[in-house]
Task: structure prediction
Amino acid sequence: MKKYRYRSVDCRPGLDRRDFVRSATGVCAVGSLVLGVPVFGQEKQPPPPETNIGDFMKVPKTKHSLPGPFPGKVVEVKDTACLVNEKFDQATVTKMVERGIRTLTGVDLKKSFRMFFEKNDVVGLKVNPVGPPLINTRPEVVEAVIRWLVDNGIQKKNIVIWDRFDYMLKEAGFTAERFPGIQIEGLQTMDESENGTKWRDASGKHVSEANFDQGVYYFAKGILGKGVQGYKDDEYYLNQHVFAGEYSYYG
Result:
C-alpha cells in the first residue's frame, strides 16, 4: 500500500531559535524601558469578521444537542490485557468500551443507548485516522461501539464511519472489508503528488465538491483562501480545502 504523508501548512520560521530569543530579549527590554510594558501582544488587532454564527445560535436545541447530557465528564478505562504481543484483543477492548459507557451514564447498556439515540437514527462515528498505527482511533474501539449500536436496534446501513480524507481512512484500517455493511465516507480526495491535478474533474472543479451541502455553510466576510501563508500557491490551497471563498460548506 502506498504511504502518504499529509502535508499541511509550511510553518518554517524565517529565523532560527537563537536569533528569535536574541531579538525578543532586546525588544522586550526596550519596550519595558520606553513603555513600561513588553510590546509583544500589544499590536492592534483587526476587528473580527462578520459571520453567520448568530444564525446557528438561533436553532432550537433538542435533548441530543451538544454538549450532550454529560458535558465535561471524562471516563478513563484501563486493562493491560487489551494488548497481547503487540496486537489488540477485540474481546477485551469491547469490555472496556462497555465499562466506559456504563461508568459514564450510571446505567446499563440498553438504558444508556436510549440516552443518546433512537432506533431509527443515522449515527456518524467521527474517527481520527491520522498517524496509524500509533495515534489513530483504533478500529477495535469502533467495532465495540458499532456492536453496542447494533445490539440496541441501529441498522448497520445507518452507521457511518467518516473523516475528511478518504485515503487516510483506508490507511487506518477503516475499509468495507473490515466493517461489512457499514458506510465509510471520506469527505474529500486530495492529490498528494507534486503539482498533481487529479483533484480536478473534467470541468475544472474539485472532484469532492459534490460531497458538500452548499445549503449549509459558515460565512466569514472578507476571509478568502487566496495567497494564504504556508501554501505554495492558491491551487495547492484548493487541493486541500475544495473551496476558497467566504463560504465554508459542510459535508
